[in-house]
Design goal:
Elements (H helix, E strand, L loop, with lengths): L4 H8 L7 H16 L30 E3 L1 H11 L4 E2 L13 E2 L8 E2 L11 E4 L6 H10 L3 E4 L10 H7 L3 E2 L7 E3 L15 E2 L26
Length: 224
């Protein structure tokens, strides 16, 4: 997987006539794979989900590396759980044994939450990067179960009205809420006065309540 569309395109098309360098690199890669009987299946992974590719070159965590502290997650579980799956996580920050990873991982129950049928579960936990919130809300509108979403309370956003239709009664998270980064990086998220979180709701019997909050840590994160 690569978050570079040009790289994926070159591998899929076995090179590029527009760049001698890319053609040469692609040929070397394909010849290596053929020599070692490797089947290469190039796929694109959105940059905001590509957690580990450039991890060593970064001085701080990115959106998908944050996780709630255990006490806050337990508070949410008592409020709306138990949850069956953590849809946006890695093995380093997953809150549940069953989690969906943005990249291949033998410990994960699936890859890329947007490629799965969320209705396979009746109770879900979501703490996605803010950049994919519009897609998360779109999926939630089709989801028939219940769960918790952690998200910024950001009324000007295009996805916000749809989220409030699906989850009209936000519930404030504990204030402040510590937020850990992974792997092994310190971090803390403090709630703002507008921070909110949503509780569970039964889709068949009424609107799904959603919790939204904003974190003052350089990242706007969400939780379904």
């Amino acid at each position: 997987m690569s978050d570079n569309t040009i790289t994926v395109s070159c591998l899929l098309h076995q090179g590029s006539y527009r760049s001698e360098t890319m053609m040469s690199l692609t040929r070397d890669i394909l010849e290596f794979c053929q020599l070692h009987f490797i089947t290469l299946v190039p796929k694109h992974l959105s940059g905001n989900l590509n957690v580990f590719a450039d991890q060593e070159s970064r001085i701080g965590p990115i959106a998908t590396e944050w996780s709630l502290d255990p006490s806050t997650f337990q508070w949410l579980s008592d409020l709306a759980g138990p949850f069956q799956v953590d849809l946006f996580a890695t093995r380093d920050n997953a809150q549940l044994q069953e989690f969906v990873s943005p990249f291949p991982d033998p410990l994960a129950v699936g890859i890329n939450a947007f490629s799965l049928h969320w209705n396979d579960w009746t109770s879900i936990f979501l703490f996605p990067p803010v950049k994919v919130l519009h897609r998360v809300v779109s999926f939630l509108c089709q989801y028939r179960g219940q769960g918790i979403l952690v998200a910024p309370y950001f009324a000007p956003s295009g996805w916000f009205p749809s989220l409030l239709q699906r989850a009209p009664d936000p519930v404030p998270l504990p204030d402040p809420t510590p937020c850990r980064s992974s792997p092994g990086k310190a971090g803390c998220c403090t709630a703002t006065p507008r921070s909110t979180s949503f509780t569970r709701g039964d889709y068949e019997n009424g609107p799904h309540q959603v919790g939204i909050r904003h974190r003052d840590c350089g990242y706007a994160l969400t939780c379904p």
